[in-house]
TrEMBL record:
It comes from the Bacteria. Signal peptide: none annotated. This is Glutamine--fructose-6-phosphate aminotransferase [isomerizing]. GO terms for cellular component: cytosol. It is found in: Cytoplasm. Its main location: cytoplasm.
Amino acid sequence: MCGIVGYIGEDQAAPFLLNGLEKLEYRGYDSAGVAVYNGTSLQVAKAKGRLKVLSEMINGGRDVPGTVGIGHTRWATHGKPSDINSHPQVSDSGKFAVVHNGIIENYLALKDLMVKKGKVFVSETDTEVVAQLLEYYYKGDILEAVIKVIHKVEGSYALGIICADDPDQVVAVRKDSPLIVGLGKGENFIASDIPAILNKTRDIYRLNDNEIAVLKRDSVLVYNTDKEIVTKEPVHIDWDVSAAEKGGYQHFMAKEIMEQPKAVRDTISPRIQDGKIVLDKITLTAEQIKRFKKIYIVACGSAYHVGMIAKYVFEKFARIPVEVDVASEFRYRQPIMDDKVLVLVISQSGETADTLAALREAKNLGVRTLSIVNVVGSSIANDSDDVIYTWAGPEIAVATTKAYSTQLAVVYLLAIYFADKLGTITAEEYSSYISQLQSLPDKISEILANKEQIQYLASQFFNAKDVFFIGRNLDYAMSLEGSLKLKEISYIHSEAYAAGELKHGTISLVEDGTLVIALATQDALFDKMISNMKEVKARGAVVLGLTTKQNKKIEQVADYALYVPELCEMMLPSLAVVPLQLFAYYVASMKGCDIDKPRNLAKSVTVE
Ligand code: M6R
């Protein structure tokens, strides 16, 4: 996720661009840059680091004069944060400058094509290919060139483009990444999000996929890919600025919950090509995978809960024994490790101190390491032998949601990939698992579309004192996450228990009215879970059951029932977690808690 802005008017562009980027820094902040037409050519200034580094470098914009420009604040995907990889990316001759939010999935093939045509690339980004393609196709009409380029590229993009040969326009196009056009008087704007332009205008066009906006000082025309004009209705924005930064949501957590279908799709789809899993840059060979006799999964908090699910998934698909450890324990327990072991580390931030220390410990022992990380270029990503990034984008809320979901998605990709290399699944199973994985984003959307039902349930229980989450196997691992979500943001005491273990002590805490959330998504364990629900009901509990749509039988026991769509059992945690996140969110919201910044917590725990 990145932020883009663009300006054309009579004022100086750079100060507006810097101001707009500041409002978009929540979308990414590892580097920033601007390109401005200075009367003869495109002047580009960009720098690794926070926006203020760039701002100081160009003297608040004064060193980059001109009235047409584009700007970018980056969340690195392709290529680590660096000056060269920062946007704008420019074409070979410096004629085109491009800012991009999204991922060009087929950039390697396109890069090869452009290299064969003699273009020289300087960055590791996927975006540079767009600048080069534009220059290649440009024959005096930018719109024409843009249409040709978007027919070539696959993936997601919001693009802002300027051209030194035709400097009186800014061109913008989007597909699956947000982009708006701000409508001014004698000046017009583009931006990834509304706050970037609110100091200039409140009238905007929301671009739809494959719409191309051509901005001049006094006009904005929007075209489709057949070069026909699209008639757009301006939208007037009356939000206050802080609401707009959250995209209209009250909290980042709500926004991030709703972003999950996209985040999961962005994580999965570039890695599935022609029905095969392609794990971009991992160097592990099939031979190395075959040598592993054990996987240690090491992580903290919610990432550890992903590891708990991963244990079941790897053992079922790849038939490799898995141990899951909380990183702060792992580092001090002297685990038995040799060259037949893989240490798989999971972390959103890539900076969690205990996880990083455990990773380094494994590396010191010469053990092979692989990490699943969201923040590109973070310490854990840098220090691992291999890294697979989750493309969740920046996660602002302390309680993780979309990072958790994308970590799970990578676990499925990786386990199926291993299973294929090890021959532990058939070709039919391989294809079936892949297509089920591809169906995840739509199924998550289906659950999100019914969020009001969960809001209602939250209204019934937001005064609860204690809540228990119970489940078996995968559902137990899910219970851990459901319970953590609830306690960290609502401050309600909650415990997750293996359903069969409850009667060995903890059931004594169940009394009249205690809420027990029972997860029962696995068919083979469904009847066992029904028995466990009956046990707690007999002690006065109110039971909220969560299962798949076919298991309506749950209503015979549970007081309330929630359903998720059908899916291969191993992948159901990706669906079941969503109602649990929403439940925690609505309960905390009804209690008036500081949801995005819960007490005593930090987003990234960089101390031991
Ligand atoms: O950045 P990491 O994934 O390494 O963070 C690990 C935990 O601190 C994190 O998952 C934490 O438990 C979240 N607040 C849970 O919502």
